[in-house]
Specification:
The protein is an all-alpha fold. Helix 15 crosses helix 17.
Length: 386
């Protein structure tokens, strides 16, 4: 194969990543909707990881195609400038989403006389100290429930700016990332939040998963990187063991609590330490095991990935930022629907409506980008978060 052909093949957009991002976006909406029956079949019920881990890993993967490729072509300053602009857009999107979400929840609480909404979603400070709350929100120190994911991505993409300068030394980049993750866990350090405590997703810990995804993306596009693991029965067995252990843990603690009570005390005590905030090693191993199985046993050029049924998920994944923002609003709308009637008909209507609107947002965003059909070129610059 000619060098140019090889390069083009390596820089093609990976449909597996986009489809998985689309699935993760759908799972986030379902998981954020109390009473949704589909919540029992999302990833968090079967593994010690969930859609958030998948999304962060894939954001790093996409970042290698979007920004590392740009740095290779146009230089670090150009790529860093583009990345900084993207961080600014994410910040504006986060503030806009917070304003709309607060209005949605506040109006519903007043209209339906359910002030518990404000307390449950941690929005009551807006009623008590509106001006101070707005200031803290602008500083990212106030993060209501469900609105703590975009601040995480803002910091991760900001960390990618200096990370791009080390893209040609993947061992050093991942070594520094792992050292930071370990140091943060040992020191129990986190960004502070207003009213005490730290961020629910500690960016300084989650950056390791992001940069692992970045390294995988670098390897997939043929840039200097650590070698990708090849298909191996031993690695497959190890991945299956990690995921199987996680499944057994979920069965014992979530599905059949009586079974968990019969386990040795050391096991439930260990599972209680598997934290999400600072990216526990077991959660990290779980999502990496799942990524290995998908990457190894689902061919990148499989016809089904570009078929009619996969296209809606692929389009959602390609436009993840607007889809995510609308999904947050839809999750609360769906909650209101299910609180009015949680029968099977409303469950079906609610989930179909949410999924249909997410797909619609994806296609409208695709049309606005003017990219046309799924591209046959490198990832566009803005695709690291949609």
């Amino acid at each position: 194969m000619e060098p140019d052909a090889t390069r083009n093949k390596l820089t093609l957009r990976d449909p597996r990543a986009d489809i998985c991002r689309g699935i993760a976006l759908w799972m986030i909406v379902v998981n954020h909707t109390p009473g949704n029956w589909l919540g029992s079949i999302t990833l968090k019920n079967f593994a010690l990881s969930d859609a958030t881990e998948a999304f962060v890993l894939l954001a790093g993967y996409a970042g290698a195609f979007a920004y590392a490729a740009r740095a290779d072509r146009l230089g670090w300053i150009n790529a860093a400038t583009s990345l900084t602009q993207r961080v600014g857009k994410l910040y504006v999107a986060h503030i806009f989403l917070m304003v709309v979400f607060t209005a949605q929840v506040g109006y519903s609480a007043a209209t339906l006389d359910r002030g518990a909404y404000l307390d449950e979603l941690a929005l009551d400070p807006f009623a008590e100290q509106p001006y101070r709350t707005l200031l803290e929100a602008l500083l990212l120190r106030f993060q209501p429930a469900f609105l703590d994911i975009l601040p995480l991505y803002i910091v991760l993409l900001a960390l990618l700016v200096p990370g791009l300068a080390l893209r040609k030394w993947p061992g050093l980049l991942l070594g520094l990332s792992a050292a930071l993750w370990l140091g943060v866990r040992l020191a129990d350090f986190n960004f502070p939040r207003w009213h005490g405590g730290g961020w629910f997703f500690n960016p300084l810990a989650w950056q390791l998963l992001f940069f692992l995804g970045f390294a995988l993306g670098q390897a997939a596009r043929g840039a200097p990187s650590l070698p990708l693991p090849r298909r191996s029965p031993w690695l497959t067995a190890a991945a299956g063991l990690v995921l199987g252990a996680g499944l057994l843990a979920m069965i014992a603690t979530e599905w059949v609590p009586s079974l968990g009570e019969r386990l040795p005390e050391a096991i439930p005590a260990f599972l209680a330490t598997v934290d999400k905030t600072a990216m526990h090693p077991w959660r990290l191993a779980s999502i990496l095991a799942l990524a290995y199985l998908v990457a190894t046993y689902v061919p990148r050029d499989a016809a089904a990935l570009r078929g009619r049924w996969a296209r809606p998920l692929l389009i959602m994944g390609r436009n993840s930022l607007p889809v995510f923002c609308v999904g947050i609003l839809l999750s609360f709308m769906s909650r209101l629907m299910l609180e009015a009637d949680d029968g099977w008909a409303m469950q079906l209507a609610s989930n179909l409506l949410c999924l249909g609107l997410l797909v619609l947002v994806g296609f409208v965003s695709e049309w606005q980008r003017g990219d046309g059909p799924a591209p046959r070129t490198a990832l566009p610059d803005k695709s690291a978060l949609g």
